[in-house]
Amino acid sequence: MSEAIEAKERGVAWDTLGGALGEADAAAFAGSREHLAEGLLRGAFALWENPEVRPKLLGILQAAVNSEEGAEQMRHFLANQLFAQAGKSIGVEGMDIYQAAETFGVPAVNINAAAGQVWGAVLMRYVVKLEPITSVPAEELIQLLKPTIQRYLG
Fold it and tell me: Which of 17, 40, 89, 117 satisfies CB 3.0 to 4.6 Å to 26 for a cystine?
């Protein structure tokens, strides 16, 4: 497959991921603060557990760790698109990581740490396929990660 086609497919996958996670984030932001982490985790794992979506997400993740272009796309997505989508739900147009941090009353690095927890679990579960994280039900993983993510997000 040509690089141009792969790049176009990654772009479509990023848009799909951004829309779906943005909607999940919007629902999580609109809910109670005590359930924020759970809402975010449920939204993320709903996508990763979907057999139609997972191959696209794996392509994005592999591109991010294997090329500077893929890493730049992920940085852009995490820093801009994801928060902008979620910000719309709370009436903040063009929200970025710093505005999200201000909204939560936490340092921006806490949001990076929360994302790192999730991406690390995703990497171990779906790419490395390390047992037992690969085999546990997604619900168990959500419950395991929830307190840590909630602590990061306040």
Answer: 89
Tokens at 144, concatenated: 């395991």
Predicted structure pTM score: 0.80
Pure H helices in the chain = 3-30, 36-49, 54-66, 68-76, 82-89, 97-104, 108-122, 138-153
Q: State the Cα–Cα distance between residues 90 and 99, nearest whole angstrom.
A: 12
Instruction: Decide: residue 115, CB within 10 A, 0-12 exposed, 13-18 middle, 19+ buried.
Output: middle
- Cis amide linkage into residue 132, ω under 30° from 0: yes
* Residue (of 116, 31, 38) closest to 78 by Cα position: 116
The contacts of residue 91 (CB under 8 Å, 6+ apart) are: none
**73-86 pLDDT, tens per residue?**
888 887 777 778 77
